[in-house]
Amino acid sequence: MPIQHTRLCQKLGAAFCMVLMSSVTGGHAAKAEYSSILQDMVGHKAVYDINLIKTKPGSKVISVKGQVTYEARPDCVGWSSQFDFDMEYVYVDNPPLKMKSTIVSYENVADQSYNFGLERTALGKVVDTRKGEARLEDDGLKVHVSAPKDENNIYDAPVIFPMAHTFNLIQKARAGKRFYSADIYDGFDDTGVMNVNAVITSLDERLAYNRGADVTALAALDGEYWRVNLGYFARGDEEAQSIYELRGTLYDNGVLDDVVLNYHDYEISQEIKSIEFLPAPACE
Q1: Which residues does 145 contact at the CB level (< 8 Å), separation at least 6?
Q2: Are strands 125-137 and 194-202 parallel, antiparallel or unpaired?
Q3: 282 assigned to some structural domain
Q4: Using CB atoms within 10 A as the burial measure, which of 65, 85, 160, 252 is most buried?
């Protein structure tokens, strides 16, 4: 958060999205399995408070604070996601910087395609945009980025999209697996495909939520949940230090809470302030 302020704001969105099929490589069997994502996770709208919680000596980051509103909404063929960030960053020798970002994506379960877009504004001006589309085919992942510049890329299979990754992580946790590794594409920056290594830990006792009535809906969930720790690496460079790490509590319906993002010289927390569960689409 995903160490300039632009990279930081970008990865706040990417990390949420990426944690939110063992391997999808194309073909009818993979599509059939992939379609279970529509039934097993629930649409929801949540507001998260974001705060800087730790820095190492010498870090140039003084303060990070703000909120993000995240909405994940299924329709009859896929999932739409939107992140609206309202952030303030303070760095050594620089004045505070207020920045708003909107990140959108649509993951089509039916044809294994994915559309993404990003717009970032500061001081009332657009300072960054990104837009593109991707499709999983038998010979790999084909990506067309139309902004900030036009480019095409092909990535070797297997690669999955963010909602598929969340779904897989939940299935591994339900099966009692402790480790899961996958290559993921979200399109929110120029990193390309990332390798994400997860460690899954069972939680024997339900967490105590002391954040007031706004999280009553979360505290009332009676499904399973786990503590997950994820390391994000550039694909093919898994022996190097991770780009960043995420730990959080993942519910079996796809909700993520109690998040800490570790960028090695500072850490950021994200906690749900309020959550609303959305009605399921009426599909035949």
Answers
A1: 130, 131, 132, 151, 152, 153, 187
A2: unpaired
A3: no
A4: 160
Q: Are strands 113-122 and 125-137 parallel, antiparallel or unpaired?
A: antiparallel
Q: Is the Cβ–Cβ distance between 44 and 179 less than 8 Å?
A: no
Q: Are 105 and 17 in contact (CB under 8 A)?
A: yes
Contact call for residues 230 and 198 (beta carbons, < 8 A): yes
Domain count along the chain: 1
For residue 180, the enclosing domain spans 5-277
Does 284 fall in a domain?
Answer: no
Asked whether residue 172 is assigned to any structural domain, the reply reads yes
Per-residue pLDDT of the chain (284 residues; tens, 9 = 90+): 222 233 344 444 444 444 432 223 333 334 434 456 566 788 999 999 999 999 999 888 899 999 999 999 999 889 999 999 999 999 998 889 999 999 999 999 888 999 999 999 998 899 999 999 999 998 899 999 999 999 999 999 999 999 999 999 999 999 999 999 999 999 998 889 999 999 999 876 555 544 545 566 666 667 788 999 999 998 987 678 899 999 998 988 899 988 999 999 899 999 999 889 999 888 76
If DSSP codes are grouped into helix, strand and coil, which group holds residue 237?
coil
Burial (CB count within 10 angstroms: exposed 0-12, middle 13-18, buried 19+), residue 56: exposed
Sequential DSSP letters for 137-175 = ETTEEEEEEEESS-EEEEEPSP-B-HHHHHHHHHHHHHT
Domain assignment present for residue 283? The answer is no
